[in-house]
Design a protein that fits this description.
The chain is built from 4 helices and 9 strands, in the order H-E-H-E-E-E-H-E-E-H-E-E-E. It is α+β, with helices and mostly antiparallel strands. The chain has one domain. The longest helix is centred in the N-terminal third of the chain and has 23 residues.
Length: 182
């Protein structure tokens, strides 16, 4: 049974808000989610710049990309490499923005996995993560396809990033979320 856009967006917004609050606590910064339905500027930040949240820290504002998934903690970053619609992917968009001097882009990349007990987070500086990816032989990176919608993803295992000064992980005990799926 499929879910409506409204139901999916409500659940996604709830999970993103939870992740933003934990990111705020972790960085001791103000984190504001970007909502494409709220204003044209926010739609540009999300769709053109790959920015899902703004992080205000020490008088400066940084962009952050967020990916929050329910279910098992895979301990990976998943970066979309192909869309069934043919639209620009996170991989191509971020590579393009990193090459464009002064472009507004995510400086931070956060991946979260939410299960019934915990939320696991991986946080990286986006430029360092993509430089690390570029240094890896393509065959050493995992790729997967989502059979449900045909989108493809590159999978970067957090274990290979441990010890990098630009990467960290943490977990938080999960509060009970209201479920819109029951």
């Amino acid at each position: 049974m499929g879910f409506s856009y409204k139901t999916d967006k409500l659940k996604s917004d709830q999970l993103n808000q939870l992740a933003a609050s934990h990111l705020s606590e972790r960085l001791n910064a103000d984190v504001t989610l970007v909502d494409i339905d709220r204003s044209p500027v926010e739609a540009i930040l999300d769709q053109q710049c790959g920015v899902d949240a703004l992080v205000q820290y020490n008088g400066a504002t940084y962009g952050a990309a967020l990916r929050v998934q329910e279910g098992r903690n895979w301990g990976t970053f998943t970066i979309r490499t192909a869309r069934h619609t043919g639209a620009e992917t996170e991989l191509l968009k971020t590579k393009r923005l990193l090459k464009t001097r002064g472009a507004l882009r995510p400086q931070l990349t956060l991946q979260a996995y939410v299960d019934k007990d915990h939320i696991a987070y991986g946080l990286a500086m986006t430029d360092k993560l993509f430089a690390w990816i570029a240094e890896q032989p393509l065959s050493s990176l995992s790729h997967l396809s989502n059979g449900a919608d045909g989108n493809r993803f590159m999978v970067v295992d957090w274990r290979y990033l441990m010890g990098q000064p630009w990467f960290t992980t943490w977990s938080v005990k999960q509060p009970k979320l209201e479920s819109n799926y029951e």
